[in-house]
Design a protein that fits this description.
about 375 residues, alpha/beta, 15-stranded mixed sheet, two-stranded parallel ribbon, 19 strands, about 30% helix
Length: about 375
Amino acid sequence: MLQSISINLSTFTSGVQVNLAGGKAEGLKHLKLHEGLLPWSSNLLRNLETLTTYIRDTVPAEEILNLLATNPALRHLELLCEGADNPTAPATQSLDAVATSLKKVVIHVAHPHLIARVLSQVSLPRCNDVALSADFTTLEDLRSLDPALAQFGTRIRETLSLGGRTTLQVSSDSEFEWSSPLEYEAFEFSFGFSGTDLGQLIEWIRHLSATLEAPLELEISLTTPDRQTLQALGEWSEVTKMNIPGMASPDDVEEALSLHDLLGNPLVDPIGGLSWNFPSLRELDVYFAQYDLLSILGMLNKRYLPAAYVTEMDGLGISIHTPPQIDLRVKGSTEPGDFMIMEALRRHRGVKTVDGRVDGRWFANE
């Protein structure tokens, strides 16, 4: 008895209509279809346990809702759709159907309102893994996620409260992914944002955290250190860890150096005193071979002023809001002479711990 079908038509013209097994395959449990159109009325789309489909066409929300209704044993649904159809019917708070078996749902579509339309009308009481992505080009698009995520509110709050630091992957100045901690498996989420304004995304994430009354702590992982993006991120007090990636070109290195200026240069407020970007940063990972360790040391000297100077300024009525010490990790090959600089970093007043690889040897706090 045929239980599993996997077909890939990506080498053919898109939109190929397929007629698998004559539309009849009793006992079929697992279906994976890449770039092929299967009629939504097909009997193959009945009583499945797993379904993965990637198509370039649009998918009506009604068909997805019907799919969930006709597959009560469905445990894994993965839908990737490039079509940009905007559902005409608005999302509602009414959960009209229940997918009791679905544990993992992955929906990657162009229009965010399709996500809202589906997840606001289907209850997923056993779902513990949700991955969603779409083109969120406006604040209204971002807020359309609110009804979609309403049923997961308690589970997201527990993840933020018990799982610890979540991750914001920054791929460009308008491409982001916010995900739950890898080590926390009770409820996993991943939300992808394309064409999104970073300021609006920060506002939305903060609003969601406040609505759920859950703490927010973030790790920022940078693919490319865009200067404008870094400036927006620098104001985010919830950021406690940051990863600086490998640099592929001199222009990228220049952008990276601007990051260290961003970390080191103080912000001057005539009333509030001196403060720094990323004021809650406690961990910094640097990973590229071209990096000059002296620039890290210079950044630390500007970010962590000597205690005597801080005391003197305080006596003059000037407040200095010194950031917390950091755990510093330097990854990638470095020059042999950098071992002495690593020793200086280890002893620096702003560094809690340091580790890295220098001249083929691991350097770490004793």
